[in-house]
Design a protein that fits this description.
157 residues; Aminopeptidase; Acetyltransferase (GNAT) domain-containing protein; Bact_Acetyltransf; acyltransferase activity, transferring groups other than amino-acyl groups; acyltransferase
């Protein structure tokens, strides 16, 4: 089956749908990692709306339904990637890669030299995905009570 989706920057009116996709994905992440105190699960729709206005948030849309999202916080020539999520029913059709391609293109256009993110090192599917997108493990941290990999990707600017 051929899927047609678009990637665009989120608008404030997308906040409720972005919130729903994040809640679904991070509940699953919590099950896989055994972590119940995830910051993402404590966010409200208003928090998401605020993040959309203050940071760069990309979304993937199929038939007017938001099926994926990723958030970027850019500080000078460095960025932090968070809240990457693709809806369960929309996985393995290229949405995650398309979101990451949009991130790469955007960050390069802004002169960003590196992007970092954190993910549970035990989440093998995500670790493999990020490795495939050019990230590498810079450190393993336990500041949140579990093993989190701090991943980094560098851009030649």
């Amino acid at each position: 089956m051929l899927y047609s989706f678009i990637i665009r920057q989120a608008e404030e009116s997308d906040a409720e749908s972005v919130y729903r996709i994040l809640q679904q994905a991070f509940r699953e992440y919590a099950q896989i990692t055994g972590q119940t105190q995830l910051e993402a699960l404590r966010e409200t729709v208003d928090d998401v709306r605020k993040e959309i206005t203050e940071k760069v948030v990309f979304i993937a849309v199929i038939d007017d339904e938001i099926v994926g999202t990723v958030r970027l916080d850019i500080q000078e020539d460095k960025a932090y990637l968070s809240r990457f999520a693709v809806g369960h029913d929309s996985r393995n059709i290229g949405i995650g890669k398309a979101l990451m391609n949009a991130v790469d293109k955007y960050l390069i256009s802004k002169g960003v030299r590196e992007v970092n993110l954190h993910t549970a090192s035990k989440h093998t599917v995500l670790m493999r995905f990020y490795y495939g997108r050019g990230f590498f493990v810079e450190a393993i941290e336990t500041d949140r009570g579990y093993l989190r990999a701090r991943l980094k990707k560098e851009y030649a600017v």
